[in-house]
Amino acid sequence: MRTLGLEVRTGLTQGREACRESQREQLPRRKAGVVSTMAGTKALLTLENFINGKFVPCNSYIDSYDPSTGDVYCRVPNSGEEEIEAAVEAARAAFPGWSARSPQERSQVLHRLADLLEQSLEELAQAESRDQGKTITLARTMDIPRSVQNFRFFASSILHHTSECTQMDHVGCLHYTVRAPVGIAGLISPWNLPLYLLTWKVAPAIAAGNTVIAKPSELTSVTAWMMCKLLERAGVPPGVVNIVFGTGPRVGEALVSHPEVPLISFTGSQPTAERITQLSAPHCKKLSLELGGKNPAIIFEDANLEECIPTTVKSSFANQGEICLCTSRIFVQKSIYSEFLEKFVEATRMWKVGIPSDPSASMGALISKAHLEKVRSYIKKARTEGARILCGEGVDTLSLPPRNQAGYFMLPTVITDIKDDSCCMKEEIFGPVTCVVPFDSEEEVIQRANSVKYGLAATVWSSNVGRIHRVAKKLQTGLVWTNCWLIRELNLPFGGMKSSGVGREGAKDSYEFFTEIKTITIKH
Ligand SMILES: NC(=O)C1=CN([C@@H]2O[C@H](COP(=O)(O)OP(=O)(O)OC[C@H]3O[C@@H](n4cnc5c(N)ncnc54)[C@H](O)[C@@H]3O)[C@@H](O)[C@H]2O)C=CC1
Ligand SMILES: N/C(=C\C=C\C(=O)O)C(=O)O
């Protein structure tokens, strides 16, 4: 069976490999990923950019860490303007051929890529877990299946778009619209759901006939690089998908500022989105910005707590709380507040933190040391403000194997007795931390839920259908899940209001974003 060649060795094998590597470390690297460099006695996986259908080495590299151990295990190209120039040239040359293909032909290529990713599901899941810190179980059941689904979904939806036509018989005119791909799409994705969010952008962009330059997060580049190994076999022509690795300020900005890249789709933080907006403004680029959240869960006294509690534990702590849709403010109606709190804390304590390969773990390691420190700093701040930490960080003890003691783990943490204007209730923490507070009335909770700058997602728990509709309509969020969380219908618009973003993604929305529309009038 073919593998994607993710050759990071451990134990004895690694020692032998390191020894071999030491004998040839002066030789130039030739084969992406397989040839490694020295760091102490460890052999490192070394990635290369993928430009014009070929793996291309870079002049300098960034260390990438295994979040579960804190060890450097991979080197990521530290690309810049030069690599973006080469990628633009390749994407420009590939555009006429790719955009001229029929939607059916492009659809077949996307289906083949989906099949190939699916055949490598286990290998990709292991790699995603190692690179990101999430459990292998989550990568196996969510990240990689959804990446496959992204290609299948857009392979199908691209076949079903129609355009508009209107008549003006009194002046003898017929009007209609046509759509065309925009050109070279710049795609910038984050580290929390690496392949999942990268493919959510690549699939609709190429389905619509664009060529792309993607820049994954420098913290989690491995599965994007593995996907590149499948592109040729899937029938993606050289230059249609180019992946350039490196940091935001260096290669990300070079991509955003390039005058021949008319469109940027970005998922990540609000400050970065601000910078991207500034850099794009002189070129009037099309922008889709999918940003953070401070998502409320509103739990009314008639909620079914048996369903609400496990789902709210999951919505708070899934993927270490590192999903923009995670719940971080839980408003509970006063009459059930104590009961909820007690049961919620009990259920949170069952949300096991473990090494990513542990099948019984619900949560793995956070993405980086810096991020772990940032998340912890919020808890410290809450404590100094007089809030109570009911479980997790600083309250319970985390037990880890010796090899993982330097990993970026922390326990899921529940905070209460906290004011709405505390930074823990206002800012995106993006970690396994959630705040629980009581409320009295429907109007009050809507006002408090809406009182933050973000507007991405909310959950509402009640058995009163009328109330659910009323509250859902008044919440200032792009998504509202009632009596559930993160059930995705990929056809429908996905995205946020206020500081949570600009634009929507989904079947029709992504198609509209990745194409330009033109109105044509025929006088007959
Ligand atoms: N979808 C979401 O809501 C996400 C939110 N975040 C939030 O952002 C915080 C910081 O995480 P970061 O990784 O620093 O997010 P970020 O927004 O800086 O990174 C996201 C992507 O943007 C790129 N990038 C960074 N600076 C750039 C620039 N100047 N120009 C072009 N591209 C640039 C990064 O390399 C990465 O590929 C997290 O703590 C979390 O609060 C992070 C990831 C996803
Ligand atoms: N954009 C994010 C999640 C998207 C989930 C989905 O499309 O289902 C994020 O966490 O950044």
Explained architecture:
Belongs to the aldehyde dehydrogenase family. Catalyzes the NAD-dependent oxidation of 2-aminomuconic semialdehyde of the kynurenine metabolic pathway in L-tryptophan degradation. With 524 residues, this protein is of the alpha/beta class. It folds into 2 domains: 45-291 and 502-522, Aldehyde Dehydrogenase, Chain A, domain 1 (3-Layer(aba) Sandwich); 295-495, 3-Layer(aba) Sandwich (Aldehyde Dehydrogenase, Chain A, domain 2). Helix content is 39%, strand content 21%. It has 16 helices and 25 strands. The strands form 7 sheets. A 7-stranded mixed sheet has the order 17-18-19-16-15-21-22, with helices on both faces. Strand 18 (413-416), helix 13 and strand 19 (433-439) form a beta-alpha-beta unit. Helix 4 (121-132) packs across helix 5 (136-157) and helix 10 (305-317) crosses helix 11 (337-349). The longest helix has 22 residues, at 136-157. The chain is globular and about 70 Å long. The N and C termini lie far apart (61 Å). The model is unreliable at 8-31 and 34-40 (pLDDT under 50). It binds 1,4-dihydronicotinamide adenine dinucleotide and the ligand N/C(=C\C=C\C(=O)O)C(=O)O.
Give the class-level CATH name of the largest domain.
Alpha Beta
Bound molecules: 1,4-dihydronicotinamide adenine dinucleotide, the ligand N/C(=C\C=C\C(=O)O)C(=O)O
CATH superfamily of the largest domain: Aldehyde Dehydrogenase, Chain A, domain 1
The average pLDDT score comes to 93
- In the predicted model, the low-confidence regions spanning at least 5 consecutive residues are 8-31, 34-40
Distance between the termini: 61 Å
CATH topology term of the largest domain: Aldehyde Dehydrogenase, Chain A, domain 1
Number of helices: 16
Strand order of the largest sheet: 17-18-19-16-15-21-22
How much strand content do the residues show? 15-25%
For the record, the count of structural domains works out to: 2
The total of beta strands comes to: 25
Radius of gyration: 24 Å
CATH architecture of the largest domain: 3-Layer(aba) Sandwich
